[in-house]
Amino acid sequence: MSHQFLVVGLGRLGIAMVGTLDSLGHEVLAVDAKEGLIQALANDMPNVHFVAADATDEDVLLGLNVQDFDAAAVVIGENHVEAGILTTANLKEIGLPLIVARATSKLHARVLERVGADRIIQPELEMGEQAARVLASPGMLDYVDLGENEALIEARVPSQWVDKSLAELALSRSLGLTVVALKPREGEGKLPRGDTVLREGDVIVVGGTKKRLDASPLSGRPPGRRR
Q1: In what residue span(s) does the RCK N-terminal domain sit (predicted)?
Q2: What would the pLDDT profile of 23-55 be if each residue is shown by its tens digit?
């Protein structure tokens, strides 16, 4: 089912969002104040409606009929913090059901929340945290921040867990973690059960709070090390 999305701000993040939404078959309106940039991008993505406009002007947004859209992303660059805040406030006033906004600091995030952003993203912070976790734990393959202090880790089975069953490890009771998927070193992925024995080279997906995941062998933290 196709939806209508508005993306305001066409830096690298905005362009990536526009391209992905377009590839998924959705209708996309992409807005940026730089007319030259708009013209260049329009040639590369003919299915996207590109507009050079000042999104801080509520009348301009109303003229683009954004009130009928399903959601908007305000990802204006870090050198234009005020513009991002004003645009978010305008879209909230217009009544968009979902507004995702980019923040460059904790203070910026709090302001965006107060003016109506439904979800805040901080891509530089999030990518930095993810890269640090992968660096600290070579066995970690992916880290997904679920928000609300929850996360998922995809990793190779730690040596401490090799040749033990999930029932024996009792990760939920002992560490507050849940194994949600298992991909054996050989064979297809499967749903884990209590009698599932973890082998060296297996890949598991584990969910829990960030604090508990950081304290587990999955994080790469040295034994006994505390914050």
Answers
A1: 2-121
A2: 999 999 999 999 989 988 988 899 999 999 999
Answer for the pair 162, 201: CB distance below 8 angstroms, yes or no: no
H or E stretch at 101: strand 99-102
| Domain assignment present for 227 | no
User: How far is C-alpha 18 from the geometric centre of its chain's CA atoms?
Assistant: 15
- 190-214 tens-digit pLDDT: 788 899 999 999 999 999 998 998 8
Instruction: Indicate whether 226 belongs to any domain.
Output: no
* Spatial distance between the Cα atoms of 27 and 49, rounded to a whole number of angstroms: 8
Residue type, 110: R
- Joined tokens for residue 127: 């990518």
CATH number, domain of 151, equals 3.30.70.1450
CA–CA separation, 5 and 48 (whole Å): 10
